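Incident review: delayed structure delivery

Summary: a single-chain prediction request sat in the queue longer than the usual turnaround. Root cause was a stuck worker, restarted by the on-call engineer. No data loss occurred. The affected request and its eventual output are reproduced below so the record is complete for anyone auditing the incident later.

Affected input:
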Amino acid sequence: MNNVSQQKGFALVVVLVSTLIASTVVLTSLKDTTVQERLSGNLQKKLNARMAADKGIYDAMESMTEQLKLAGENSLTLEELVAKSFDSGAMSEQFAMENSTMAYDVVIHTATDDSSLAENELSITSTGTYSGGKSEIKAIYEIVSSSTLESFPFANGITGCEAVTVSGSGLMDSYNSVLGAYGTTLDDGNVNTNANFTLRTLYNDSGQVEFTGAASINGDMIATGDINYQGKNVTGNMQSNGNITIDRNDVMDGNVISRKAIAINQMAINGYVLGLGDISLTRNSVLQGVSTHGNYQQVQGTITDGVYVAGDVYLDQANIDSLTYVGSYSTGNQPNVSYSEKVNSVSINDVPEAAYDDKIRADSDPVQTTCDPFDIASKVSAINEQASSADDFTLYANEVYVLSKSSAYFSSMQKAHSTETVTAVANVGFIGSNYDVLMFNNISLNNGELTVKEGEDVTMYVKGNLSMSGSSTITIPENSSLTLIVQGIVDLAGGGNINTPVSGVTESGLPVLSIYSAYKGSGFILKAGNKDVYATVYAPLTDLFIQSSASFKGALHGNSITVSGNGQVTYDEALGNTGPFVTSSGGSTNIVFKGWEYVTEGMTVAVTDTAS
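Output delivered after worker restart:
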C-alpha cells in the first residue's frame, strides 16, 4: 500500500514537471512570435520610409527638370536653378498610406554651404519617415552644359576616345534595365530591346572607327576621325568629321554625313547622304537624296529625292530622278537622269561637326567636350595616398573570399595567407562621394571565388594589377554591387566567369559592376566566355580589349576599344538616361548624377521584450 502511494506521488511530480516544461515551451514560442511580428513590422516601416526618401529625390529632380525645360535654350546657373526649383533650398510633402502617414523632407546644399561639393555640384538629401521608420538618402549632381554632356562617360554604348575597332559579328543594341531584363515583354506590350546604341570616338587628332566584322548596329555611329565600315546593317546615322568608306551589301536606315570624302559601295541608304568633300557611290540606292559641297561620282545604283552638287559630276549607268550641279558634267555608259540642271550656285545644307575633345582642360577652352570628365588619374592618385599598407592577395582553388562594405574575409580557405581579413578604409573620396574602400596591392584570382556579400555595395581599390585565371569566378548577387578602382592592369582574360545579376542597376542606383582604371596604355583585357556579363568600364587612358562569345551589357569608355568575338554588346539606357548617371533636361543645361548613398536607415522605435 505504501509503495502504491509513493508511485502515485511520483507520477504527480512527473505530470507537474511535464506541464511546466510544456508551458515554458509555449510561452517561449509566443514570445518569439511576438518579437518576429515586431521585427517584420519594423522592416516594413523601414522599407516604406525608404520609399518616401526615394520619392523625395524623384520629386526634387522633377522640380529641377521642369525649370530647365521652361528655360529652354537659355542656360541656368546652379544658384538660379536652385532658387527657381525650391523654396529656401528645401521641400517637403506628406501623404497618407494605410493607417499612417508617409512623409519626406528634402534639403538642398551647394558649395556655398558644403565645402565637400565642387563649384557646379549640388546635393539632395531626402529623409523619409513612416510610422517610426526612417531612411535618409543623399544624391550628388553636377550642372553641366549640353556640349559637356556629349562626352559624359556612360551616355553611349561604346566610347573610344582615340579609336574603336570591331572585328566581331555580334549585334550592338540597347535596353533599359530599370524596366526589366533584356528581351522581356513589358506591361505595355513592347519588348525591352531598343535601337539606342551609340558607338563613337572623341579625339580631334585621331578618332578612327574600323569596323571589319559582320556585326550590325541598332543605333548610331559618330566619329571624329575616319570611318571604315564593312559591317552589316545600321539602323541609325553614320557621322564623321573625317572620311567615310562603306563597303557592304546591306542596309542603313539612317543618314551618312561626313565633313570630308564619302565612298560607298553597295549599301542601301534609306536616309540621305551629305558631304563636305567628294562623294563616290557604286551600286547604291539612296532614298532621300545626295548633297555634296565637293565633286560627285556615281556608278550604277538609284538615287531618289535629288542629287545636289557644288562641284563636278561623273555618272556611269546611274539612275537619278533629279540632278542639280555647278561644275562640269561627264558620263561613261549612258546614265538615266529624269531631270538635270546646271546652275551658278546651289544651296546645300551645312555639314554638322561632331563634338570632339581638343585635349585642352581649361576654363577658357571653348570646346568643353572631354574624354575624361572625371579626371581619373587625379582621383585614383588621391586614393593611392591612403593605400600605403595595402598587401598582395592571391586566391586559390576551392577558396571563397567574401567582400562586404566594411571588410573582406575568407568563408573557405585552403592555404595559409599573409592577409586573411581586410578592413575597409572609411570615408574615402571618389568622384563626388565618400566610400568605405577595401585596399589591396596586387590581386591574383587563381581558381578561387571572389564574392560580394548579398545586399551590399562594395568598393575595392587595387593599387597594382588585377588578374583572373583558371576557373576563377567573381560573383555579385542580386541587389549588390562591386566598384573596382584599379591603378594598374586589369587582366580578366585567363578564364573563369563573372557572375552578375539580371538587373543591371541596384536599388541604390549603382551599376552591379563598375570598373575604373587609371592605367595608361594597353591595360584592360576582358574575355567573357559563354556567360553574359554586365559591367560599366571607365578607363579613358587605357586601351580596352573585349572578347566575348556571350552578351556584354552595360557601357564601355576607354582610350581605344577593340571588340572581337561573336558576342552581343548591349547598352543599358538606364546608365545615361533615367538611371544613375545622367538626368536629361533638354535645353542647354543638363543635370548629371555623380553619386548616391543611403546615409542612415533605422528605426526610431525600438523592439522591447514584454513577454517576461
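Verification: The chain is about 15% helix and 40% strand.
Action items: add queue-age alerting; document worker restart procedure.
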